[in-house]
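Troubleshooting log. The previous run stalled partway through. Resubmitting the same four chains, unchanged.
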Amino acid sequence: MFVVMAGTASEAEVLGVKSAILAEGLTPYDHAGPDRTVIAVVGDMGARKPALLERLAALPGVKAVTPIGTPFKLASREFQPEPTIIRVLDAVIGDGGLTVMAGPCSVESRDQLFETAEGVAAAGATILRGGAFKPRTSPYSFQGLGVEALRYLAEARERTGLPVVTEVMEPSQVDIVAEYADILQIGTRNMQNYSLLTAVGRVARPVLLKRGYGATIEEWLMAAEYIVSSGNPNVILCERGIRTFETYTRNTMDLTAVPVLHGLTHLPVIVDPSHATGKRRLVQPMALAGIGAGADGVMVEVHPRPDEALSDSEQQLDLPMFRSMMAVLVPIHAQLRRLREAGAGAARTAAEGRPATAATGDSTFGDRPPAGAAVPR
Amino acid sequence: MFVVMAGTASEAEVLGVKSAILAEGLTPYDHAGPDRTVIAVVGDMGARKPALLERLAALPGVKAVTPIGTPFKLASREFQPEPTIIRVLDAVIGDGGLTVMAGPCSVESRDQLFETAEGVAAAGATILRGGAFKPRTSPYSFQGLGVEALRYLAEARERTGLPVVTEVMEPSQVDIVAEYADILQIGTRNMQNYSLLTAVGRVARPVLLKRGYGATIEEWLMAAEYIVSSGNPNVILCERGIRTFETYTRNTMDLTAVPVLHGLTHLPVIVDPSHATGKRRLVQPMALAGIGAGADGVMVEVHPRPDEALSDSEQQLDLPMFRSMMAVLVPIHAQLRRLREAGAGAARTAAEGRPATAATGDSTFGDRPPAGAAVPR
Amino acid sequence: MFVVMAGTASEAEVLGVKSAILAEGLTPYDHAGPDRTVIAVVGDMGARKPALLERLAALPGVKAVTPIGTPFKLASREFQPEPTIIRVLDAVIGDGGLTVMAGPCSVESRDQLFETAEGVAAAGATILRGGAFKPRTSPYSFQGLGVEALRYLAEARERTGLPVVTEVMEPSQVDIVAEYADILQIGTRNMQNYSLLTAVGRVARPVLLKRGYGATIEEWLMAAEYIVSSGNPNVILCERGIRTFETYTRNTMDLTAVPVLHGLTHLPVIVDPSHATGKRRLVQPMALAGIGAGADGVMVEVHPRPDEALSDSEQQLDLPMFRSMMAVLVPIHAQLRRLREAGAGAARTAAEGRPATAATGDSTFGDRPPAGAAVPR
Amino acid sequence: MFVVMAGTASEAEVLGVKSAILAEGLTPYDHAGPDRTVIAVVGDMGARKPALLERLAALPGVKAVTPIGTPFKLASREFQPEPTIIRVLDAVIGDGGLTVMAGPCSVESRDQLFETAEGVAAAGATILRGGAFKPRTSPYSFQGLGVEALRYLAEARERTGLPVVTEVMEPSQVDIVAEYADILQIGTRNMQNYSLLTAVGRVARPVLLKRGYGATIEEWLMAAEYIVSSGNPNVILCERGIRTFETYTRNTMDLTAVPVLHGLTHLPVIVDPSHATGKRRLVQPMALAGIGAGADGVMVEVHPRPDEALSDSEQQLDLPMFRSMMAVLVPIHAQLRRLREAGAGAARTAAEGRPATAATGDSTFGDRPPAGAAVPR
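Second attempt completed without errors. Output:
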């Protein structure tokens, strides 16, 4: 259940509620929003639930106690109405700006990485991606350069100023990856690797959580809940395609997940058209489609010479294609943001009795608190 | 196989090739583009194929004879490189402009239809939709007003000037629907009703062909091929969502189909976010996403009072929501068109050795012949 | 709603209830089972429902009036608890015996059909299948011999004594196909062709209704409901695979649908491993699996020389393979039937508080009324 | 590539080939079958492949060198034609007998486990299952008793003599689970957790590898390849349902995977109708269907009082239902085995020019070497 504190509640009153929850052997998680503080109560309440609800509602400073309508709690908009904004070095994710994560599928050499990193930085990318540990379907495929690649990524950050995102594949790798990288990526095959989710939930690095290719939106949010409830509130969701009967594309990009998520959760959402489509010629239109759907950003694979790539060669853009994409993506995102901030909030739907935009996930473009959850290096 | 005529070939030479094909008991279909004429050869060639290919290649005026790489022939870009542009009354579909089909799921009464028609026309819709014959999962559900609804739709056309699209469900209905409507719609459940496809292939009305919710892109194009090879070149493809394991939305909107189709076929492609999502609050972001993906237009369900609708009440927009959507959709489409026409064509990809945009389906925004296949009433 | 008459209710009392329903502008459908008669009330009741329920419950001979828990009514087990048994010539479907429909994908010639028909009859097939009108993905593929094939099928029936099942593709074909064939097949692509469903609902021939490859079990039963509510109670359901991400097989055979259906409906269920798998070497194990799941029979494609077949050559068995399959299928079915009739009915589950077998669809193997719905030629 | 040694090749000749492969920086894996030895060559060969192939073919004792047609190598039937037979305590898996793994979803208490273990042992189960570490979609759900449960399982093994299978969720748990359990289970969510696959590949315990609910058959075999190529040849594959649009059942049980796998791999295959269907009344028919499809065994969840279960309460059988299932399963499996061993091998298909049964996966029921890969405790 959620305990909603009155706007005027004192810190002592918030503490009083948390103590009462702890005294019951339950765990309180609190979120202090601009207008009010909400405390989520987590744990097995069993039959005492109605009595407990009544008791908490009677405590000083409590405005209301409500049951939780979704299986995810801390990730829900009910718990935190305002969007989560994540700051890493100079990059800001989820504040209405355009996040562009770009870089090679795999880090193959220092030169390949630096050439790509400088190219995408010059074209406007805000975050550098690159695989060090690669989850491969075959045990005989290239498995990544490992720690060597992590060092190159850290060097590339020095040269470009771009924060670095890279995948972590098992709990025992979390520390070493967190030492070099700025954002830890959980890949699609590990979305339900609960040991790993708990492990990344315990470090001070934002996590990019890719959707499992066979996972529902709800399961995806439950995976995010594992991370957040372990102590790490900075989760970025990344739609990368689901598996369907269609064989023309590598996956089916479920862009509707973007506005659905913006309605259900406060976490930022980006889209990965490279993995979703598997074909480089489809990346630009699907990146644009993602921005149209309201995504907070895109992640694309870029390689100086895609045909020589050691992995995913068919879906990586070369640098001219990346620049060409940015030349369309940036102004379209800017205009969309202007339009949403300007007038779209005005329309009300008679059918729903509330602003059309609130429900369409446009609230991510609305008023925000001045500061996000800064994650310093 | 395709016989590509030299740009300088005379009409007599084209005729000569067609005669040679007919003499073999095969069927020639020709397309005269701005630069060249292509003749598709259809029929069972069996073992004589190589000999025939050689013979045709030697005829005067023939530039090349090529095998066909796809199972669809007349619908392919290889047969007709330039986009099909369809004109109905004042509406033009596929010329780079924004097509907006809007109206109620079902025509429920004269008043309901007129109120909606005038509302969507005022807000910028270019075509009026409305169901007269309704395919319903249950035999006990409202099955539509039938011919009465067709009459109302024709009246609404008189009042608003908007051409009318409505569904036809069986071969014996084709004549009566074609009498009243301007565009015949084939619904998702009938995408592989081959008798019906052949029947609509024989009338002088454009056809809106919805994707079967369980159909691949290739099967969808084969369904279009049934219509085109029966004599009707004016087919509009409409993505309306496919069925996946995701249950949050009614279907999963496969927007990647848009650039894929723009690469494979010359037919225009629109998207239907109402059926794809099943929830009105998702319609606006997914319409925008569709435009981002390069769609030639959108189809949305609009009802003056959605909560009173006899069918699909959860997914119909009311008029304020429709206006709100148009206020964002129109400028974004316009800017995207400008950007594409301006510079995007310049980028070349080293990896593919050809213009990035040709492959991304942007060719639909390139140079076009001045006139489309006008379909007068 | 269902009006359940007392076991002692007189014919006059049943008539009284039906009159009362008709007087309300609603339609009564009655089913006289061995123990009791049930009358389904169909039509739009709106707000008068509670009052009507009360009024009907008070009529003489009425034992109970219950709301209907499923969207399908006449096809439900609640309406008719005992299984529908269909008799066509000497074949009986749904009585606990093993139905085997076999024959070529397409009727290609008189000789090919007769050779196959005699071969499968000698090996124990109970019904002859063969395509006359073929729904093909491509307009350029072999579309079947049409009426000529229907004549061959009728001749083959004369020679072998086997009733004949063949597909009908559109409402205008129903009469001619019904003239020659004993069972009308609705193909997977037409499962939601409601005009066709209604048309076959009006003829005195059993209907084999294949599951749409993208359809849910509930939609499939709604399609059956269209046929039954149009007047034809003799529907056989045929599972033929659904579409999934798995590409190794043509479709994914959803055998769990068999016991699910046996729980939900009284209609017989057969399985088609030829279309479900698309590979002949998988037909025998999947036919056995179907029998293990409780299916009333199987439908398999057999061709004397599969490699020369004009359609589906990879999935047709040759005659030795068919005989080999029958040599395993027949004794396994017989033993399974013995086991089920003997002891399995004895086990009760504490968890469900009712016989385990009733729910597992084994009721189709229980006591049955002596006579089914005979359909004489 | 595979190097096939002549039947008469000496041990020294086999060693010679392996040395030649190692000298190239590649890895040889050899399998000594009853008739011949096959050596798989693994590693990046690049351009030297044709020359290498020629050189190896010329070595003494080599009969043939063939490229590998599948991405999985050591798991393929080409590498090892005869089936893998796994022995654990008194249980034998893959020898044509019926393996039955049964027990509770989660170990909840010593009493609950012992009651179940004794009940399923008495009814004929050959292996005891029970969850100690539970992968749960929600971080707030019961996560299993952990090591305490492992101790109970070991005790239950003492009392019943049944070997124990239980899930391991992360690399760091492998040692402790291997200390108590006889077979290590990899759950559906971890099928592509490559770190975990490699870790269980290094211990001397057979591994039960569940199919990922969104994974293709090929990916599943690649996951098995990770385990086998890490040194553990004893992998049992378990089909437990894939995710589709059908919502009536928890998953769609892909039973066709059974004969497909028997054609592609030598590893034993069992089926799990509890997770595949999610409903206890569907377990018995689908277990029978699995046996019909040729599975080497079944895995079912059994709980003394399913309604009180802490997880998966709807799909667990109670003990009477389990006994009832066994009463049908055992005799049907026995008869099927007799029929297959007796006559079915005789039929040849003209179409394929080889024994029908070889291709249907029935080869798992053919002649086998007397001893499997025994895994002593």
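Takeaways: The longest strand of chain C covers residues 27-32. The interface with chain A takes residues 243-245, 247 of chain C (CB under 8 Å).
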